[in-house]
Write a structure and sequence with these properties.
single chain, about 280 residues, mainly beta, Lipocalin, 14-stranded antiparallel sheet, 1 helix, 14 strands, globular, disordered N terminus
Length: about 280
């Protein structure tokens, strides 16, 4: 397991090749809202100068859920949009720290008072970091991000995701891990759904083959921080949730296809636009 984790960390860092394509998909089911959420992202990168930490990007993203609806009184549980546009990433070689800027025309799949038009221009600047450590089958990882999002009323949102656990079993093609997750979110617009802390227990079954597919099941106990801005919180301060998700990621480069770990919190449990 240690060798696989080390290889994955190496691959999330600045690409060895001048041309690369990162693919990521993570459908999710949340029992709290009985909602199914689809999320997929593709990032094509080109490094004009191999020794520089700068990549030029083309970023495509899709997010849609099964419960949000438009109308005179819309009911929104998740952002529903598709986008494609250019970006720029600065990531020092050998580092998991990255700063990414994006300017993407976005198609609103569900219109509401927040996004009344068919399309709009989505701008974001996000700083991400990822850490992983393991010793004798015990592991811990930490992902964090802080970003400015024009789509969410110029909000600045910060996320932190931490896991600590143990590799309980490993067979020829799969590995079972048990872990304790902790998720924290804060923002500057004081949206109640962006100010929470969650903790609980999780289990992950991961392929140890080139497929790089993971299935996660988590039970989470959450608490809102009592912060309310423009929208009042219609829910109780404390809640619980069972979440099931599939996670697939892959890097294609000029050299070879590689497994890569999931992106940081921007694409994980703390995706901007979700109203937990």
């Amino acid at each position: 397991m240690r060798e696989a984790a080390a290889a994955a960390l190496k691959n999330i860092r600045a690409a060895d090749s001048s041309l690369y394509l990162d693919l990521y998909a993570a459908p999710l089911f949340t029992s709290r809202f009985q909602d199914k959420i689809a999320y997929a992202e593709a990032v094509a990168g080109w490094k004009p100068v191999a020794r520089w930490p700068v990549s030029l990007l083309a970023i495509g993203r899709l997010m849609q859920d099964s419960r949000s609806r438009a109308g005179d009184i819309p009911e929104i549980y998740s952002d529903n949009a598709a986008s494609l546009g250019p970006g720029l990433r600065i990531q020092p070689k050998g580092s998991n720290l990255a700063l990414t800027g994006e300017l993407s025309p976005t198609l609103n799949l569900t219109r509401n008072p927040e996004h009344p038009d068919r399309g709009e221009l989505n701008k974001r600047v996000v700083l991400t970091h990822y850490l992983y450590g393991e010793k004798r089958r015990v592991f811990a990882d930490l992902g964090a991000s802080a970003g400015w999002y024009s789509r969410y009323r110029d909000n600045v949102i910060a996320y932190a995701q931490a896991r600590a656990g143990v590799a309980a079993w490993e067979g020829r093609g799969a590995r079972l891990s048990l872990y304790a997750p902790l998720y924290v979110s804060k923002d500057t617009n004081k949206d109640f759904f962006n100010n929470y802390a969650e903790f609980g227990a999780g289990a992950e079954v991961a392929s140890v083959t080139d497929l790089n597919l993971k299935f996660r099941m988590e039970y989470l106990r959450g608490n809102y921080m009592g912060i309310e801005g423009r929208d009042r919180n219609p829910y109780a301060a404390a809640y619980h949730d069972v979440r099931a998700s599939l996670i697939w990621s892959m890097r294609f480069s000029r050299e070879r296809r590689r497994k890569v770990p999931p992106p940081g919190p921007d694409a994980g449990a703390g995706r901007p636009g979700l109203r937990w």
